[in-house]
Amino acid sequence: MSDVRAIGIDAGSTTTKAVGVDAEGRARWHLLEETDPRLRLQIERIITIAREVAGSPAPVVATGHGRRLAAADRSVTEITCHCKGVYTQTGHGGTLIDIGGQDSKVIVVGHTGKVANFAMNDKCAAGTGRFLEVAARRLKLDIDAFSDAALHAERDRDISSTCTVFAESEIVSLIAEGLPVGEIIAGLHRSLVRRVGALVRSTGLEKPVMLSGGVAQNAAVRRFLGEELDVEVVVPEHPQLMGAYGAALIALESLSVR
């Protein structure tokens, strides 16, 4: 019999995650896949797998942009789930920055684990992971090489475009001018963190600053964001799973009120 008692699903625009927790709220199982265009079918399959792992019809809470496609017991906003997940894992409040593929979120986590304030960038991809993903693909670099190039650049070139589409054209023009690729990539990272930094300042920065989401794996984003905010940026364990973990914890709580 599995220790999994409740399940959280985070259906994101780039990846879809599932986490199973035991009766004490400890993560015991997880699954991470690239998001399929047929998201409803993908979520159904993942829930089936998760419940097979649990060995019982464990409660499921869904979050993420595709949460309403899930045949879950309940759907909960990403803000609530990320706050729940990071507070439970770290045991303290602070400012959580989640840079996803479709949007970026800044959540001020209060000292009791509740959302104290939040802001979202969901209007333009230039403040999200998609901005870097498009640029890396245009330059034919994987994310590690892309990040490494930014970290080792002697300087960063200003990227004036605030739109992902126009920034891609600007990259092509800068390369044609013979500018070092590393400096262009560093400029792209600086452009992203400036937008995220402005979002943080709009909520009021509360230390420590924590980073979650797939972009948390990018070392250049971590360093440049720390420099932009003049703080040390902390990355929780399994940063991509924070939303799904929080959803699983909320699902677990539903068992106690049945």
Could you write a compact summary of the structure shown?
43% of the residues lie in helices and 20% in strands. It has 258 residues and is α/β, with parallel strands linked by helices.
List keywords for this structure.
258 residues, alpha/beta, five-stranded mixed β-sheet, 10 strands, globular
Descriptive account of the structure:
It is a single chain. This protein is of the alpha/beta class and 258 residues long. Helix content is 43%, strand content 20%. It has 8 helices and 10 strands. The protein has helices at 39-54, 78-90, 129-138, 143-151, 164-176, 181-203, 219-229, 242-256, and strands at 6-11, 15-21, 27-34, 60-63, 74-75, 94-99, 104-109, 115-121, 209-212, 233-234. The strands form 2 sheets. It has a 5-stranded mixed beta sheet. It has a 5-stranded mixed beta sheet with strand order 8-7-6-9-10, with helices on both faces. Helix 7 links the parallel strand 9 (209-212) and strand 10 (233-234). Helix 2 packs across helix 8, helix 3 (129-138) runs antiparallel to helix 6 and helix 6 (181-203) crosses helix 7. It is globular and about 60 Å long. The model has no long low-confidence stretch (mean pLDDT 91).
